[in-house]
Amino acid sequence: MSSEGEMIYKDLKSKFDQDGYIVIKQFLDEKETMELKVAGEKLTENVPAGVKTVFSTSQTKQVADDYLIESADKISLFYEKAALDADGRLLVDASLALNKVGHALHTLHPTFEACTYSDKVAKVCRALGLVKPVVPQSMYIYKNPGVGGEVISHQDSTFLFTEPESLVGFWIALDDATLENGCLWVIPGSHKSDVHKRFLLHNPDKSSGTSQTIFQGTHPESKQSSYVPLAVEKSSLVLIHGRVVHKSEQNKSQYSRHAYTFHVFDEGISQYSEQNWLQSKVGFKPLYIV
User: Fold this and answer.
1) From CA 214, how far away is CA 57, in angstroms rounded?
2) How many CA atoms lie within 13 A of 203 on its CB side?
3) Does the chain have fewer CB atoms within 10 Å around its N or its C terminus?
4) What is the pLDDT of residues 10-50, one digit of tens each?
5) Distances (CA, A) of 250 to 62, 107, 173, 240, 258
6) Half-sphere exposure of 92 (CA within 13 A, CB side)
7) Which H or E run includes 162?
């Protein structure tokens, strides 16, 4: 941890409450950063045959929804649209084809579990004043050159709604994130607005156990001038309030933009919505209990 990072901790909560995001440089050391990236790269090996699911929360096909919903307690693979042909065959090397892997890396993979439940993460949560932070989901995001697509503007609380609001995203850069390879863009202060849109679990036919996901509400358009880019060096941590509007552009560079990200919410004060698409069958493990 750099001395600059230590200084941030002294008034982390006030800055986070004001802007809705904060960057902590050198959150991980070089060894920790490399271990996560190596683990993420190994997830691309031995890609299974058969149907490959493209990651897109706008999909309505049942097969896509089932695979997404069932990933809550699994390590599941999601592909980039540009990496597959119309029949689902790979157009690029398997090492470059994935959009992300999720959503239970923090409980099922020892390398990601060690990072998520580390003293460093607990220190951030304590600085934010979280009483009983629990982790509902985690993702390894690839954003590979050439196929790494745009992520449109959104709020994380659209997908992981809690009441009262206490969701915080932890986004750890495992490569340098630049304007060219698709760094994050955020709208400062946008967390002071409401949650505009919800991504919900919908059961049209409960007798058969069929489940689907649906969007409810509309996310308003935002001017590009409202956003600020977060070009950060690898090992940096970006904290993102659940209501902060953010996005990332397509990776137009020759370099990857890998990241490990997970979310926490304060189970000590908040209720996790039963309508959220992600519903764990085993519950959410706390980082600590004050």
Assistant:
1) 9
2) 8
3) C
4) 789 999 999 999 999 999 999 999 999 999 999 999 777 66
5) 27, 30, 16, 20, 13
6) 17
7) strand 162-163
